[in-house]
UniProtKB/TrEMBL annotation:
Binds ribosomal protein uS19. This is Ribosome maturation factor RimM. It holds the Pfam family RimM. Gene3D superfamilies: PRC-barrel domain (2.30.30.240), RimM (2.40.30.60). It is found in: Cytoplasm. Belongs to the RimM family. PANTHER family: RIBOSOME MATURATION FACTOR RIMM (PTHR33692). The lineage of its organism: Bacteria, Bacillati, Bacillota, Clostridia, Lachnospirales. Residues 11-92 form the RimM N-terminal domain.
């Protein structure tokens, strides 16, 4: 899941045009949809091309955000931006509270257990309604899933790209006593 180009963070993805006056429908990839209300300068990017644009209006429609950019006034100009990411400069990002982090800052972090033994690399973060889940790729190629809750994740050091988690051993039930 790509989230940034060094100093930019993805806040949404354009899914389609909206109406005929150059508005776009955006699927938000941020936890705070209200951040779009104050969005001014942002970037449209498909990985090969990045364009700076200025947001002039914001509306909400169900789970989507409708944005209008100063630079584009009709549907023909904006249709080509379908599937483009909407990026913001890191300094324009919503401030984090203590204990929060941007997903892009933990991707590829080394993951260690409670005994400081390396488990693997943080490969992805699944966003679920209950809590995020770290996908850790072990050195043998297998993956383990770790819920991002204090019982399991107790230290996230984005500066050093290091995450510490508590693991537990799964004990298989001995079914031999159940045989008749």
């Amino acid at each position: 899941m790509e989230h940034n180009t060094e100093d930019r963070l993805r806040v949404g993805v354009i899914t389609s045009s909206h109406g005929i006056k150059g508005e776009v429908k955006v699927y938000p990839t941020t936890d705070d949809n209200d951040r779009f209300k104050t969005l001014k300068k942002c970037y449209l990017s498909n990985g090969r091309e990045t364009l700076e644009v200025n947001c002039t209006s914001c509306k909400f429609l169900k789970n989507m955000v409708i944005l209008k950019f100063k630079e584009y006034d009709n549907i023909n100009d904006i249709e080509r931006f379908k599937n483009y990411d909407i990026l913001v400069d890191r300094e324009d990002a919503v401030p984090l509270v203590d204990g929060e982090f941007f997903i892009c800052d933990v991707l590829d972090a080394d993951v260690y257990d409670q005994n400081d033994e390396r488990i693997g690399i943080l490969d992805d973060v699944l966003e679920t309604p209950a809590n995020d889940v770290f996908v850790v790729k072990k050195d043998d190629g297998s993956e383990i899933l770790i819920p991002v809750v204090p019982d399991f994740v107790f230290d996230v050091d984005t500066e050093n790209k290091k995450v510490k988690v508590r693991t537990f051993e799964m004990v298989e039930a001995d079914d031999s006593d159940d045989e008749d």
